[in-house]
Amino acid sequence: VQLVESGGGLVQPGGSLTLSCAASGFPFDYYSIGWFRQAPGKEREGVSCISSSGGSTYYVDSVKGRVTISRDNAKNTVYLQMNSLKPGDTAVYYCARRPTFCTRSVSGYAYWGQGTQVTVSS
Questions:
Q1: d(CA 97, CA 27)
Q2: What Cα–Cα distance (Å) separates residue 10 from each residue in 35, 38, 48, 72?
Q3: What is the three-class DSSP state of 96?
Q4: Nearest Cα to 55, choosing from 73, 76, 75?
Q5: Fewer Cβ neighbours under 10 Å: the N or C end of the chain?
Q6: CA-to-CA distance for 83 and 4, rounded, in angstroms?
Q7: What's the pLDDT tens digit per position in 18-75?
Q8: How many CB atoms lie within 10 A of CB 54?
C-alpha cells in the first residue's frame, strides 16, 4: 500500500494550489480517501474526504467554499484544489485511506502518505 502526496509549496495569500494523492498497491476504487493537515504545535485535523465512488464528500467548515476534492479512479489519484489560501492553511497535508465511508477522525485511517508542505505567506 502506498499513498504519495504532491503539489505543495509556497504560495501568497489568496493564491491557489492543487494537491495530488497518488495511490498504489490496493483496489483504489474500493476506498474512501481523506485529506488531513497538521500545523506546527497543533493536532492533525480532517480537511476533506471523498467516498470510493466520488458521490459523497466532506469538508471541514474552515475550508468550505475554498476547497474542492475530486478523484480519478482510472488514475488512482485524488485531488485537493485549494483556492483563496490563507496563512492559517499553512500545514503539512496528508492523504489517507479507509475501506468504508468517510470520517473526520484521524483514528479511522490506517494508511497514510508522507505528507506535502503547504506554506501560505507573503
A1: 11
A2: 19, 16, 21, 26
A3: strand
A4: 73
A5: C
A6: 21
A7: 999 999 999 999 999 999 999 999 999 999 999 999 999 999 999 999 999 999 999 9
A8: 16
